[in-house]
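Obj: model holo form, ligand = manganese (II) ion.
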Amino acid sequence: MEEITALLKQRGLKVTPQRLAILNFLMHTNEHPTAETIYKKLVSDFPTMSLATVYKTLEVLKNTGLIQELNVGEGSFRYDAKTTPHPHIVCLGCGKVEDLDESIFKDLLEEVKKHTDYKVVGQKLYFYGYCPACQKKMNN
Amino acid sequence: MEEITALLKQRGLKVTPQRLAILNFLMHTNEHPTAETIYKKLVSDFPTMSLATVYKTLEVLKNTGLIQELNVGEGSFRYDAKTTPHPHIVCLGCGKVEDLDESIFKDLLEEVKKHTDYKVVGQKLYFYGYCPACQKKMNN
DNA sequence: CCATAAAAAATAATCTTTCTCTCTTAATAT
DNA sequence: ATATTAAGAGAGAAAGATTATTTTTTATGG
Ligand SMILES: [Mn+2]
Ligand SMILES: [Mn+2]
Ligand SMILES: [Zn+2]
Ligand SMILES: [Zn+2]
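Output (holo structure tokens):
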């Protein structure tokens, strides 16, 4: 928790239990949760925390670059404490979202820059398919 | 309009003025409009059309593969009658969404398949930046 | 034409996200 | 330690996007 406190302070943010809890949770999961999911996981430890606080905190963390926002095409956003741009794969069977090895795409941005007159500053790469468990289910 | 009628009939869909108008509009624009935008453009010609009809029609067209749904990270979905998977670039200045030359990515899906145990069936590639007009604005 | 099933219209409801207002608290300087 | 103050948290309302429900209208095959 010390490091997380430091991260917040570095950015001039007040260190509050809610911020610590939300950032800590995101830094120790790889499930790319939604605001709703984060709220449900934390509300038992922080009974007074409201969903609005989760949203507001996520916005603050996003704006200071401590987390990134994903949208894989559902109704709601997901959040990720791994802030380097990296590709994701979504299971169309169970809805889970996982990281993909990013080494595959190292010169993709360069290619794009060559082929467009936009000033390119970011990217979001999403792949869709079926995870091993869901493939097995389909074969039964 | 003949071809559009045929497309709907091929899929066993009733040919209604609303469906013709919505699909025709999407097939002749490259602006990747939202449901709201489509509604606003068409309501003058179809004064009784409701936004709910636009949503329902878009869902039908999507489910039959006549259009695809995009989510570039705004609050709402955009729709595209070009149904082949192709990359998009979003202007962070003016919000416009354009197609990118897809030839750059021809073996991307193959690369992904090599590096994951998912059964990969689709992809969404979004790039973010500033269009030439917005770059010019920023320099003034 | 007519019957019938499907679609459109109208409207309400739901779901996610944002806003506003008030109260509390963390950070800082004394 | 205490006081000050500016930022954040909480509650609830509100907004915005999408979906569901009910009734009316329309497309289409016979
Ligand atoms: Mn990730
Ligand atoms: Mn497109
Ligand atoms: Zn799965
Ligand atoms: Zn622009």
